[in-house]
Amino acid sequence: MKHISHPGHLLELKEDNVIRENAMCYVCNKTVIGTPTYTCTSKSVSCQSFYLHKSCAELPPKINHNKHRQHPLAYLPCEGNFCDVCYCYPKFAYSCLNSDCDFDVCLSCAFEERMYQHEGHAEHTLTLVQRVALFTCDACGEEDKDLSYICNVCQFWIHRRCASSPLHISVLAYHHHPLTLIYAIPDMHRYFSRYCTICDEKIHVNMWMYYCHRCTYFVHMKCAASSETESINEINSGGIEAKLADLVRFPRRSEESVFELILTQCEKFRVEVQGKGKNSITVSTIPSDPHTIEEHWSHKIHPLELLRFTISEDDDIDDSQTLICDGCIQPITVFHPYYYACNQCNFFLHSFCAIKLPMELPAGASLCHPQHLLLLRKRDIFYELVECGVCAYFTNGFYYECETCDFKVEIRCAFAPLRINHTSHRHYSLIKRPFSGSRCNLCRFNISEGIEYACETCDKFHIHWQCALYPSQMKHKYDPHSVTLEYPPFFYEGVFHCEVCENQVNNQLMLYHCRACDHSFHFNCLRSRNSIKFGGTVELKIDNKLHTLAFVVKRSTGKTDPDHYCRSCGTGYEYYWFFECDGCGYLLCHQCAFEKLNK
Predict the structure, then answer these.
(1) HEC states along 164-200?
(2) Domain co-membership, 68 together with 18
(3) How many domains does the structure of the chain reveal?
(4) CB atoms < 10 A from the CB of 599, how many?
(5) pLDDT tops 50 at residue 281
(6) What are phi and psi of 160, to 5 degrees?
């Protein structure tokens, strides 16, 4: 066929082989994906991007319109004139041929339904208001001047463009499933606040949105239609991959990952600061370390004996049997099996932490505090906690201290790299910087203390340093398989609950999940953000009764369960550190216990 929109060449109807994701109709400027479309038969390069909806090609040559009853209107190119109804500047319009009228109406306004029954407001009929007005749309929440539909019964008021939004979006550059237009967040997903996956802003419960039920994936209406949405496939990653290859990648692969990160970053420090080969760190199956350390600086009361960690395939180790290093507060495993132990005190150190951690970091050596010398330290009493000046979390393990500034930094943070690469933002590098008050893209909490890692390119991605440290695989006593760290969008229909605390899990956040057992876990129920070793015991006389109190962490196990109350101050906690009597369950919060033990 020939058409006035492309008079130079014949057009050919194509039913389903339009392949460009951004293909738009030349006349109405809407996508042609999934609809019968005419394309140009010419091989000219300038014509390869011409598309015309079959419906736009078959529009009647003349119409009558209620806004201009004097004369019929003809379908013509619109050269610089605006629509006299909505004031847009269309390429084609229905125009009055009478030169005295100068009336034009765009295609949308020409065929607009004046009475509209929409399933988003099924209880009443909507009426088209054919003049531009300033209002706040009840569908998208945006204030705008636009044509609108209004319900005369309950004053429900929506943009005309919202009323004509497609019920389904099937071809997407930013998601692997089709999206459906819904008119409120489903009841089963209202336990948590929900956020748009594109702009990361909160979605109001009763606004219209696009939704993938298979992934709990929500998108604002305006974001779903935005031409600025970046497709991962459009990123030229050839040069980017090379730049990211040398960066430390997160998440690390296993529970041993944090210790391995400390080890490798410490080796890098030795090479850069002390010279290549000097006191270099080596990890061998047969250590050259002494078999006994008579008086280690961190544990002078008893000798430390060198041992080798072993485990058979039949062993079923629970949390109470896991050996935790008192230096880096990471598990001792078969991957780095040699450790020093004082079994009398349940005091353990990786052989690396015992003898190969630098006792001091010269000024300029540490990125977290380059101004002054940092000295390796540890508190004498296991329940004395130190707050890290970098991540703002607590530790009872090793830390570096600046005596000039009274600045303290735990081991994990002392060797944190300047730049990293993270799976959830894989095409860009993240740089370490002071917190900005932004919301962490992994846990949704504001980063209000310490440091963050932020994207150098888009400035839209921020994560806590502690969130980056969660490993991609973990073992847990509640699941016979390794559980995997998952990032949204998470392919799962419905809701699920944490096997540890029994509360609902938000699958718009990172979470641990076992697909074999269908078990799910909050990420922080499996691993604490703090570097604290629990399990130490003290004896304390309370009301003439001697209690043996163990240092433990207590968390609520459900919404209906009572909080944990301190028997001294009466304060209730959902999550806190306590001293608990194994015999009678007597609880003292850490603060009250510390005061009583230091009287």
Answers:
(1) CCCCEECCCCCCCCCEEEECCCCHHHCCCCCECCCCC
(2) no
(3) 5
(4) 4
(5) no
(6) -60, -40
Q: What is the rounded CA–CA span in Å between residue 156 and residue 137?
A: 8
pLDDT at 10 over 60: yes
Farthest-apart Cα atoms in the chain, separation: 106
User: Is the Cβ–Cβ distance between 6 and 26 less than 8 Å?
Assistant: yes
Structure tokens at 527: 């691993």
Q: At 542, give phi and psi (nearest 5°).
A: -130, 125
Burial (0-12, 13-18, 19+ Cβ within 10 Å), 99:
exposed
Given a contact cutoff of 8 angstroms between Cβ atoms, the answer to whether 599 and 541 are in contact is no
pTM equals 0.71
pLDDT in tens, 303-361: 999 999 987 655 554 444 589 999 999 999 988 999 999 989 999 999 999 999 999 98
CB 354 within 8 A of CB 304: yes
C-alpha 355/C-alpha 284 separation (Å) is 15
**CA 200 centroid distance within chain:** 9
Q: Select from 413, 412, 396 the least CA-distant residue to 450.
A: 413
- SS3 label, residue 263: helix
Domain that holds residue 156: 115-163
Q: Say which residues have a Cβ less than 8 Å from residue 257's Cβ, sequence separation at least 6.
A: 251, 469, 471
Q: Which amino acid is at 99?
A: S
Residues 576 and 547 reside in one and the same domain: yes
Residues 15 and 41 grouped into a single domain: yes
Report the helix count and the strand count for the chain, using DSSP H and E.
11, 40
Of 334, 331, 361, 339, whose CA–CA distance to 268 is shortest? 361
Residue 231 inside a domain? The answer is no
